[in-house]
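Hi D.,

Good news: the full-assembly prediction came through. Inputs first.
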Amino acid sequence: MKYTDYYAALGVERGASADEIKKAYRRLAQKYHPDVSKEPGAESKFKEVAEAYQTLKDPEKRAAYDALGSRPQGEEFRPPPDWTRQHGGNGSEQFSFDDIDFADLFSRFGARGAQGARGGMPGQDFEVPVEISIEDAFRGTTLSLSLSMPEYDANGQLRRVPHTVKARIAAGAVDGQRLRLPGKGGKGFRGGRDGDLYLDISLKPHRLYRATGHDLYLDLPLSPSEAALGTSLEIPTLAGAVSLKIPAGTSSGRKLRLSGRGLPNPRGGAGDLFAVAQIVVPSALSDRERESYQRLAADSNFEPRRHFREEGA
Amino acid sequence: MNHETEVLWLDEHRAVSLHELVEISGLGEAELLELVHSGALPVRETVGGYSFSARVVTVARTACRLRDDFELDTRGVGVALRLLERVRDLEQEIARLRAQTPGI
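Then the structure:
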């Protein structure tokens, strides 16, 4: 297994006092806790910090950790032969380090308690962020999640066990939707209930649509003539193209609603699709176009900034 | 196990009882009730016992993490939940405005 430097994770010296360790943990927890931090990588950083604190705050676990010696971070190693007997084992159990993570090494202290506990220990809950496409949210999808979960074996040792969980996500999931898969977290130990798996759904950015709740927004570029004269256009929706009448005199920012063309609501109905008009002009004009615009400018008495004058008067 | 599993939507259409919330959040009944009484945890109805929107499951689990990871008492957890709710509301408002803002 690979060695993890818990003192470095907390930014303290190996001889740090319990109070110094607690203060370092609190400072880092406030910075990286996933419920309060938006820093990139905060969750994994917090896991490192929490794992280090869980071991170093407990005198028995800290002594066992210190007995492993000081090693470079990430160095492959095996605990000394008598380490199991001296720290955390009863001397008789066969203990293999072959398929155990460093993070799980110190769980045996808790597991001894679990073995003695009457009701067993519940399995761990897990939260997994899942990104799905807007198309998948529209049609529904089946997720196949490959997860590695720590589970207690028959000896009460935590080991990483690969799991594949298939979950059908019905149509209508929105950004921020939380789902609970009961009993699909870590296995309980000796009669303890199995943990739950929680999925935190987010929608991937889409090249055309922006979602808010069940509503979708679509930019609708219009030429000046289309916006001024009105037209009828094919609009792409998630269920296929539909025809939309653009009223004459449509300005930029006007929202044209296509009722029920957004994401379906699992409880019935659907959100709307809003096509947001954006008047765009060519970056370069042909001679004929320039002449037409010049003639229009001369003939038109349209005053788009009249309100400037009225407010100032 | 490769078969498809039961999926529960944690939304306002599903209700959970106080007993269920105790079971799945990691908080004790007294802690949950203190959070309810302080207004930090929205309760749906009180006729015949407390009932919660399934959305509260996520909030209660967050409360449990805050309690454990920051060693907070219930009052501290309640304040943190209210602040997190305000942040979440503001983030949703920003997301809504961004969705409505043309990208071209």
